[in-house]
Amino acid sequence: MKADDRVVLSRFTLEVVTALVTLAAGAVVMGGAVEYAIGWDETGPQPGYFPFRVGLVIALASLGVLAQAFVTHRGTGEAFVSRERLRRVAAFLLPVVGFVFCVVFLGLYVATALYLFAVMLGQGGYRWPFAAVVSLGVTGFFFVLFEWWFKVPLVKGPAEALLGIH
């Protein structure tokens, strides 16, 4: 087994955690429904009738998944995520998280230009002049499209304020 093929997260672990999380969600739904009447009276179902049953179905399905995980996948060591797969997911996810962070502090347009530039350089392998032209061009196009043509103002940051674009 290569170092990059090592199991980071097993299928059994993921199925157990997922079953427990959805079981808790079902229990919360049932608990919330119990605050109201969950029965049936002469006018029909009471307010908690359907939510309680939906929570019950979620909880029962979660218990089924939990049982199936123990019967089918316990001790198999079957990988859900290997190191290489996790690296690929992180290569996509981390720039997106950085983009969202930059939107909050720099505004949408600056964040878009930075995101496109960084991804084109880091993942696409493009040279920086081409990445700069494309990222600035796409960002400029979206600015014109949303701000001028559609008249839909998007999130602005300090760079736009500095340029007087509000």
Describe this structure in words.
The chain is mainly alpha-helical and 166 residues long. The chain has two domains: 3-77; 90-162, no CATH class. It is built from six helices and four strands. The chain has helices at 11-34, 49-73, 83-106, 108-122, 128-149, 158-162; strands spanning 7-10, 40-41, 44-45, 79-82. The protein has a two-stranded antiparallel ribbon with strand order 1-4. A hairpin with a 2-residue loop joins strand 2 (40-41) and strand 3. Helix 1 (11-34) runs antiparallel to helix 2 (49-73), helix 3 (83-106) packs antiparallel against helix 4 (108-122) and helix 4 packs antiparallel against helix 5. The radius of gyration is 25 Å and the shape is flat.
Keywords:
single chain; 166 residues; mainly alpha; 2 domains; two-stranded antiparallel ribbon; 6 helices; 4 strands; 69% helix; flat
The H/E string reads: EHEEHEHHHH
Structurally, the number of domains stands at 2
Strand arrangement across the biggest beta sheet: 1-4
Sheet bearing the most strands, described? Answer: 2 strands, antiparallel
So what's the overall shape?
Answer: flat
Give the oligomeric state: single chain
User: Over all CA atoms, what is the radius of gyration?
Assistant: 25 Å
Share of residues in helices: 55-70%
Average pLDDT number? 90
Structural class determined from secondary elements: mainly alpha
Tally of helical runs: 6
Give the low-pLDDT segments: none
Q: How large is the share of residues in beta strands?
A: 5-15%
For the secondary structure, the number of strands is 4
Alpha-carbon distance between the two ends: 56 Å
Transmembrane segments: 12-38, 50-71, 92-118, 130-150
InterPro entries: DUF1468
Domain DUF1468: 19-154
Protein name: Tripartite tricarboxylate transporter TctB family protein
